[in-house]
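Entry:
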Amino acid sequence: MSDTEDSSLPPITELSRAQRRVLGVLVEKGITTPEVYPLTLKSVTTGCNQKSNRDPVANYDEDRVEAVLEELRELGLIAMVYTESGRTPRFRHYMRKRFTVTEPQLAILTELLLRGQQAVGELRTRASRMAPIETLEQLRTELEGLAAAGLVRSDGPLDRRGVEVDHNLYQASEKQPMRARATSDSDAPPSRSSFSGSSPAPAVDPGLSNRVSELESTCQDLRAENASLTATLAALRDDFRKLGEEFHELRRALGG
């Protein structure tokens, strides 16, 4: 599903911290809870201050969120709408009108707007809540498209083990080099100076070097798997919390 990109407005190259949070909430809720979308001002504010699937946790009031919604409206990223069921204004995003992205790419970008830099394994788990991303290879393909559009960046080649990615919509005052993570299997061993009279450095057993590399690779895989499981648990906790809220709402509606 893709709307026509609006070329009458200038391209978007940066967003403020609050704009990223509000926009990310609108996209996320539009996909995960379509029954309550578009969102009221109160719902947007609650979503911004949600304690799960957000980094950092925020504490915006409705006046602040309303001002940010107006800023996003001027950028052509959101619109105010009225539904048949009530007079309260609601808000919906227009991301597909401002960016040419696939559904998986929209999910990926949304997760990055809500949480910032993260490992590809974590990102796939979280973004898969909104769009099917079956493999890391599919994720990398989608990331390559986003990178080509200038929307994401990484701290190394996407096929490198342990690489992390982030969105590229920071304001100039926020932008910093990504925290690169060195990988021992690609680094050259440190050189040793030769001193007169010193014994030559002992030769390194190739078999031992290979076993060390294998252990390092296994540790990196386990870390990525642990991060993925942690993200899955966080998503399950969030789903459980939502079910609890829906249960209490239903009890109140039934007079319980």
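Confidence is low (pLDDT under 50) at residues 181-202.
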